[in-house]
């Protein structure tokens, strides 16, 4: 085997480093787009919190290409969560979700299909309603919330960039401590 010159060794070393960096970047990018909630590790959560970064973890469900659990930077909007989940699936009801609302840690973002809000307004809603994406009509169906209060909740959510906790509803005019207990079981951030 012929001996390599010093300049040839340097060129090969640079190429090897470039291949390793490209491979590492590709692996990292494929991990951030994964949709499996089981792939999120608690160790990674602790490491991010210890570093001072405030990422949020959201569950994107419904009419999206890749439903799943995703990590997003703090301050992300619903549109970022939908984009991370591969975008809207065919038949998604784009107008039934507030894409400008901020997402909060632990939130579920549900992108409805056509007719979904009408079905839920008729009482077909099962489980807690997401404050981050609920329409006035959906909130109106919750016991203790009427149409006027539902409108106030949506306006409060839009003015404050979303709701990160059900406790923030206490700041909405028309919702007192007595109503809060009922709302905790019917709503989620």
How would you sum up this structure in a few lines?
The protein has helices at 6-32, 42-51, 78-84, 116-124, 136-140, 147-159, 177-186; strands at residues 56-62, 68-72, 108-111, 129-130, 187-188. It has 189 residues and is mostly helical.
Total number of helices = 7
Kindly report the average pLDDT value: 76
What strand line-up does the widest sheet have?
A: 2-1-3
The beta-strand count equals 5
Tell me the domain tally: 1
How many strands, what sense, and barrel or not for the largest sheet? 3 strands, mixed
- Given as residue ranges, the uncertain stretches (5+ residues, pLDDT < 50) are 33-52, 117-125
Please name the CATH architecture: Orthogonal Bundle
Oligomeric state: single chain
The ordered string of helix (H) and strand (E) elements is HHEEHEHEHHHE
The fraction of residues in strands falls at 5-15%
What does this structure look like?
The protein has seven helices and five strands, in the order H-H-E-E-H-E-H-E-H-H-H-E. The protein has 189 residues and is mainly alpha-helical. The chain has one domain: Photosystem II 12 kDa extrinsic protein (DNA polymerase, domain 1, Orthogonal Bundle). It has a three-stranded mixed β-sheet, with helices on one face. The protein is elongated. 25% of the residues are buried. Residues 33-52 and 117-125 have low confidence and may be disordered.
Keywords:
189 residues, mainly alpha, 7 helices, two-stranded parallel sheet, 11% strand, 5 strands, 3-stranded mixed beta sheet, DNA polymerase, domain 1
